[in-house]
Amino acid sequence: MAVEGGMKCVKFLLFSFNFVFLLCGLAVIVVGVVVGATLSSLPESEQEASKGSSTVIIVVGVVIFFIAFFGCCGAWKENYCMVTTFVILLSLVLITEILLSIGGYVLTNTMLVIMDEGLQEMISEYETNEEFKDGMDKMQQMLKCCGGVNVSDWVDFQADGISVPDSCCRNITLNCGIGAMNNGNEIYTRACGTALENLIKLVRCWFGVAALVIAFIEILAVVFACTLMRGIHKGYENQEVSLS
Questions:
Q1: Could you give the C-alpha distances from 73 to 27, 81, 94, 226, in angstroms and in order?
Q2: What angle do CA 141, 135, 204 make, to 5 degrees?
Q3: Domain boundaries, the chain
Q4: pTM surpassing 0.90?
Q5: Which end of the chain is more exposed for a tag (fewer CB within 10 A), N or C?
């Protein structure tokens, strides 16, 4: 028995919501495949650093597609079991997102400590580890920073004690960092630890906003689905009454 009245509007909204997310799930899967194909063409060392990222993206896409499929088909067919499955799955996803958000927020300080230790290790092995050297140079140029805690972290970089890597320079030229530790006009003076911390906090803020928006949409979808479930169930009851 088809739902009637305002329940048709709820059915249409739930179907539209899930159809969009069905397409999003497919898009995420395609992105995961493309990322995997792109990573396979990179040097082996860089592939190792990005190992599993494409798999995670594909898995997320499959989960989105799977849940949206139940919601989409359940709404279109007015199938009580499929809509119920959709509500259960989406509720589990919502709970998981909340727990992950709380965990991520709580672990931020721990992550910052580990990050600072990692920076000091990269600086201490800058001359002996080519991977650390390349990573530190890229980070200092990208974030426009120098050193982990401050520029004096590079005091042992050269025998004179006042030189920094060329990647600390505002305008990179060969040996531009020689004797430039105290020259704020020539080199970046902001610590990379501070720059990374600010970046992480900014990303966390945007992720928080995105998580709230997504959570609101998911809660709305659950409410619509529960309303449709009640309408479908009521339709079954009315049908039974008319047959008796």
A1: 19, 11, 21, 15
A2: 75
A3: 6-109+194-243
A4: no
A5: C
Q: Give me the residues paired with residue 237 across strands.
A: none
pLDDT given for residue 94 in this prediction: 87
pLDDT for residue 12 is more than 70: yes
Q: Is 17 helix (H, G, I), strand (E, B) or coil?
A: helix
Nearest to 69 by CA among 82, 88, 78, 55: 82
Instruction: Give the bridge partners for 192, in sequence order.
Output: none
* Length in residues, the chain: 244
The pLDDT score that the predictor gives to residue 45 is 47
Structure tokens at 62: 């499959």
Residue whose tokens read 């025998």: 159
14 phi and psi angles, rounded to 5 deg? -65, -40
CA separation for the pair 90, 218 (Å, rounded): 7
For residues 109 and 120, give the distance between their C-alpha atoms in angstroms, rounded to a whole number. 17
Measured torsion, CA atoms of residues 90, 91, 95, 97, in degrees rounded to the nearest 10: 20
Note the helical H segments in the chain. Answer: 6-39, 44-49, 53-77, 80-106, 108-124, 130-142, 192-243
